Amino acid sequence: MNGSLVEWKDANIHIASHVIHYGSGVFEGARCYNTPRGSACFRLDTHMKRLFDSARIYRMEPTFDQATFTEAVLETIRANGQKACYIRPIVYRGYNALGVNPFPCPVDSAILTWEWGAYLGKEALEQGVDVRISSWSRSAPNTLPTLAKTSANYANSQLIKMEAITEGYSEGIALDTFGYLSEGSGQNLFVVREDVVYTPPLTASILPGITRNSVITIARDLGFKVREEMLPRELLYICDEAFFAGTAVEITPIRSVDKIPIDKGARGPITTAIQQAFFDIINGEVPDRHNWLTFVYPGEPLQTVGSGTAKTATRV
Ligand SMILES: Cc1ncc(COP(=O)(O)O)c(C=O)c1O
User: Fold this and answer.
1) Taking the alpha carbons of 151, 24, 42, 188 in that order, is the dihedral positive or negative?
2) Ligand 1: lining residues by beta carbon, under 6 Å
3) What is the pLDDT of residue 269?
4) CB contact at 8 A, 277 and 222
5) In ligand 1, which atom is closest to the CA atom of 47?
6) Please, how many CA atoms are within 13 Å of residue 173, restricted to the half-sphere of its CB?
7) N or C terminus of the chain with fewer C-beta within 10 Å?
8) Cα of 50 to ligand 1 centre, how many Å?
């Protein structure tokens, strides 16, 4: 917290902190994986860039620069001795004054890491999940900016998630205020039809997901056509495959929407291919050709593994 390592039980803030009352925090969610070549964070620099972008949108000046923050994430993982974990850096308006005006409040920061398995359950990664179209829309343009990953946006996500769970679904998919497909409560959406992979564009009130960006890259690497387009709700009822992408859910197939099965109601071949390629990268089983992995511990990455083609320098 603010540059010091603090025991979990002592990591507290004052109840009058601005962030608690007005949602004035920006944060990230990244993952560190235990690969056969050592512990590695997935796209850590990209996550830290998005954190600083979010802070900029909210006129927050973090007290540490991006490189220091990134190093602090690695130090926190090392201090916790974790091999794999979820990473939550947060920059927030702290304690000073309780008016809406955030400027008098300090810009504080913290990094939390903890062990977190499959977000929607392990079997979801294979079997897929049942979802509904939410009765809640994502934020309209020029209301709450969705390119910022701010705590405030998750009030909307909570409404989507609670409605889905209460009605027996794993997740909800929200439309934007024009009625086009947007995203889930905490994950981006992909739809496959006639071998083309579609995903809503940034103008559909989505968070610019880093897994989404990785999926687009992987799908193109695999030779699939990818289109970022405004998509109608009913495409979900007639598509061949659909899946979620996000740090927490990784790549999770969707097997039904509004109780209508997607094709045969099972994970489809293109989802499987993209999922496999994604897991091969995050598990360090193929060469890291896009430079997506940041190894955490000195001496790693270990040389070896898989085809033996991975060529990397050893960190010292
Ligand atoms: C609303 C929302 N959309 C999409 C995503 C997926 O983004 P990423 O792949 O960067 O985790 C998340 C997760 O952070 C999210 O909260």
Assistant:
1) positive
2) 29, 157, 183, 186-188, 207, 209-212, 246-247
3) 98
4) yes
5) 10
6) 32
7) C
8) 11
User: Ligand 1 centroid to 187 CA: how many Å?
Assistant: 5
> Rg of the chain over CA atoms, in angstroms?
20
H helix or E strand, kind and range, residue 86 = strand 85-93
Query: Per-residue pLDDT tens for 220-278?
Result: 999 999 999 999 999 999 999 999 999 999 999 999 999 999 999 999 999 999 999 99
pTM here? 0.95
- Give the Å distance between the CA of 146 and the centre of ligand 1: 10
Give the chain's largest Cα–Cα span.
59
Tokens of 58: 């909210």
- Which amino acid residue places its CA nearest to atom 5 of ligand 1? 187
Nearest to 169 by CA among 136, 200, 133: 133
- 19's enclosing H/E stretch is helix 18-22
Q: Answer whether 123's CB lies under 8 Å from 263's CB.
A: no
Ligand 1: which atom is nearest the Cα of residue 157?
A: 1
The verdict on whether 149 is a catalytic residue reads: yes
